[in-house]
Prior knowledge:
Helices cover 34% and strands 15% of the residues. By secondary structure, it is an alpha+beta fold. The chain folds into four domains: 1-56, SH3 type barrels, CATH 2.30.30; 174-247; 266-492, Ribonuclease H-like superfamily/Ribonuclease H (Nucleotidyltransferase, domain 5, 2-Layer Sandwich); 509-654, no CATH class. It has a five-stranded antiparallel sheet. A hairpin with a 2-residue loop joins strand 15 and strand 16. It is elongated, with a radius of gyration of 40 Å.
Amino acid sequence: MDQRHRIAVTDWIEFEEEQHQVTGVTGALVRLRSASGHHQTIMLSVLLTDPSFRTRTVPPPEAIDTAAGLDPGGVLALLPKDVRDRAIKLEEHLKEATTGYLSGDSLAAQPGEPRHEYRPGLPLSTRVESKATELGLTPRRIWQLLDEWEENGLWALVDRRKARLRNPLRNIDDRVIAAIREQAAAERFDSSSSVSTRFRRRTQNRLDADYGPGIVPLPKEDTFRRVVKILLHRSPSDPAYQRISDANQPDRTFGNVIAHRPGQVVMLDTTPLDVFAYDPVMSDTYNVELTIALDVATRSILAWRLTPLGTKAIDIGLLLADVMTPEPMRPAWADALRYQMLRVPYQRHLSLDERLAEAAARPVIYPETLLYDHGKPYKSDVVQRACRKWKIDMQDARKLQPTDKPHVERLFGTIREQFSMHIAGYKGFNVAHRGKNPEQQARWTLDEIAEFFAEYVVAVYQNKHHTGLHLHGFPDLNVSPNEAYAMALGAAGFVDCPRDPAMYYELLPIAHAGRTINTYGVELNYLVYNAPILYGFRRAKSPYNGERWPIRYDPRNLLHAYFHNPSDNAWYVLDWTKALSDLQPFTDITLREAKRLVELRGGDPKGKDYQEKIAQALWDLQNRTDAPETWTKADRKRHTRDRHRAQAQAQDEARSTPAITAPSLMPPSNEKPALASLHAVPDLTDGDDDFDPFTVQPAEVWNSHTSQEG
Length: 710
């Protein structure tokens, strides 16, 4: 009877009393490598007819340990279940042949054990012959299995044809592998492309440039795609944002930012909010940015700001003030959201900061170290001056390394899942996740979204158990950010935050190199500002370095500038002299657009009529928004941006001591301007001295959500 053998590359055979592995088959020739490392080539017909030739189901033990380089136990655990079960069953047969019991232990004998032919009193050779007859093998093969089993355990009994180590890149040139990886690294920030077209062409060009044209050809197209899939975690055809995100990961072990007390490390970051805001005035939608301050020790959201796309440095500086300012309660919020529900020594805190009486349940923390990215607003002079004023350390993360501040990056994902996805107008975090018409679903204004977000933070996020927060001594017990804050106060104590009524003005940007006060006022950004208070300081040298006066301005509303009077330590409002009575507030971005229009019309910044031309250009820009037939996307965006930033500027200014505003710009020529007095309420007659403003009932406010239209 003819016996057929199948020989493939990597198979093991026995030949001339030695173990060999087949390393190649070429026509009628077979290349062999012995277990000892010797190579030979033999004709296939000679090999098959040799009396010492036989196939092996497993390689020799020494080949397993030295060639594989893997953990046998790990490989065994990852084998298919049927392969592993057959090896276990064969091991039971060998145990029965050596001990008489399938389990190998007489104390765990199964019913009917030991069987007659495997009685422990019989010689081992007799039991081996009986097992060989039962399994249909030769006694010599059973002895071989026993030797290998004693040497390597269960791994020696595995069918190696099922556990064969395969190298899918065995026949691929190493230069091709290197070129694919180098080209993928070069294209990590490029747009997505097809593997079979652009990426294949560029890879071949790289090989031609390195080794010469046609010296190193690429494999066939199907093989090339398979090799690229094996080598690269992200294919060039994958979405670009995934490859860019992977490219930002560091090539070393991630570090851990650890904080033990509230405020020790506070992370700041800005990201686009995944929701379109609706502008009812323009009947249009626009993008929103969210800026967050996160306390690492308690995972508390300390402050937040929602702004139209393009966060300013003043927004970041005032965000630090928000961190140290209690969040006010809203009229519609439940009493369970008050600060006193944080389970902290409320009365003692109230004696330090009376603002906590009407505050919401959000921690108020004095930050020690700020960790932020390389964004331009974070590195501005406004933020640096704020940190110097409050003695806050600044630490910037490495550029394009989001893993340096992983807590706040993960927070953005949490906000997306718990908040943004449930807001009408949700647009997804990239184009691939965007619906068909999310703009048509948007219905909430920026102010309404900000109120929703404030309620989400206080009512949901701060009270939800966090998987990254644990009760000390109980690693399996998760706590919420508010609970973590209450526990941290017991260990670190409460630090009173500074309260400066002039905080807003001190954080404003200062005009570069200071300004000289002329008879007509001060010039800032080619605009002239004036106020009666400047009358006594015109052409006077300042006590500051450089003998110039620091003039502050808010880039969100350039209708006004601010001057600090060293005589009475008060702040004064400076008005733009050419402002029209009905001119809307405008930002520095709108001012640049107006200047561009003036220059296109031939205007000279040094000309006498430049102020009038700027005013007229602003007038034209704002008139355009009043004509629906001429609306453009840029006009609607500018109008919405200026209006919202002017509102934010007014709210921030209202939190501080109001600056003194003069009723007129020019005082009489024969007298000096009198300083306006600052009063909480207007001066009253003697008969009304007992007037209490807190007894006045506020007028009813129309609520669009509760009103019903017919």
